[in-house]
Input
Amino acid sequence: MVLSPVIGKLLQKRVVLASASPRRREILSHAGLRFEVVPSRFKEKLDKASFPTPYAYAIETAKQKALEVARRMHQKDLRAPDVVIGADTIVTIGGLILEKPVDKQDAYRMLSRLNGKEHSVFTGVAIVHCCTTDAQLDLEVSEFHEETTVKFSELSEELLWEYIDSGEPMDKAGGYGIQALGGMLVEHVRGDFLNVVGFPLNHFCKKLVELYSLPRREDLRRVKHDSIPPVDTFENLSDVEGSGSDPAQGDDGGGHGRAEADGDRTQAPAGPQGTDSHGTGESPPPFPAGLLELIDGFKASKALFVACKLNVFDVLKVDGPLKAVDIAGKIDASVCGTERLLDVCVALGLLEKTDRGYRNTELADVHLASDGEYSLHSLAMHSNDHFWSLFTDLELAVREGASAAFGRKAEEPVQSKHKTLQFMRAMHGFAMLTARQVATAFDLSQFTSACDLGGCTGALARALTQEYPRLKVTVFDLPEVIEHVTCFQPEGRRTDRISFMPGDFFKDDLPEADLYILSRILHEWPDDKVCELLSRVSSRCKPGGGILVAEKILEDKPAARGSLPASLNLLVRTQGRERGLPEYRGLLERHGFRDVRLAHAGDRLDVMLGTRASPP
Output
């Protein structure tokens, strides 16, 4: 990888590192990045138990650190930096997150737990792009995580205490620093060494390649790169001294390369062919690996769907590892076909293959087994059973428009209980992944009551009540949905601050509330129905009340790959459509909501908050 053009994409931007860690500062400055250092004041008090995986906790912590710095800098001088980088490093073993020890005895407990064993080091990284327009701050977050596996040697009590007495463990996640004396504890490392130090530089550079298109290789030879200026420090922003995070803590933090894979590969464009290195012939265009993967992409999706339908991931979560012949017997399939399907799942990063047989990856255990709290099994099944056939009409919808394609479809009969539950599980799985990000996109502590229109299983309602102790939430959805919500109530987490009310938000009276929520609702409907719904909400919402809308906002720049299928879903399935921020803002303002603000809730959702103005 040629780092100069990668890092060079940020040289003309004001970049801020939201971390006081000297290790992160050293890694990034040695890579040639110019940046300012503004330690974050974010209080690291997130509930670890509320996250499906350790790396999800690390990513969220990194994101909150970066967002806090971006918003504080914007409030100080009404202009945020162009890019804010946040990171958080954690050490995990057996699902337990080890952060910085509070004293020597705590350090001993941590190191004893790691002694002679393998553990994982996760770093979550958030790259926040800031845009200020008319004093309005818009934020877009890109995030990733990296995992490195570290094995400790069998260490004596004397050696452990000698290391602890050196003082080095006290500001390090997991109680050790691999780049210094702690290196003597380590037997081997699998993965990115710098990730253990505190920042996954290689993955960071790959992420920059995704975010910024690079010049063609032949152009790089013609460009003369200036020397890179040294790092600037910016420690004294406003009243940062004596408050907020202690810079001595070094906030080290985590992510998982296997689940992320490579994403979209950037290919050099095929243009006029030049001569080869000997000047005697024409060189072929770059090999279109990414394009070939795209052409074959439907096969990977279908393999995933079939594996879910045959309950492969459920079987392996309970009994794995298993040989192909044993799995075939449990799923009632041929050994030959099963083995080929399993090998494809290995290639996709969903399974691992060892001498003992096949077993789930962590990703599959958490998201593809059907019984997990954050399972996407039903979303895969809904995509297979519902969307797969609908997408055969994509050509028709493109040629004749959504209305024509929608009109040709036979009216669906009333859904069976099975299909209703499958749809609800699909929506619930996605909501569990995004609910907390939506709930925390804005500070909603001013509201004491909320109504989640089309709130389905109440996943967002639970996230809201966990985040805001004074808030009561009413989930308002169709009777056939409310009938089944008890299937989705987590044991031990019931709260009297959540209630469910059956009704049709186009026909029935809406419950009274300070805040009305429309999460992934408006894109399903054409403009006339959106206006009808917003008019009903506006007439019910009192001045000073609010409306919270969560959707994927269309942007002028090329869309992220993950957001593209949604607009096609609407083309083949409904008469709704995606909209851009100006259009959503106009719709809300037309119905009496002012001061419409935007925040990003991960890669798949954006959140808008508007305030009900007093009638003229």
The two ends are 60 Å apart (CA to CA). The longest strand covers residues 136-152. Confidence is low (pLDDT under 50) at residues 214-280, 406-414, 557-563.
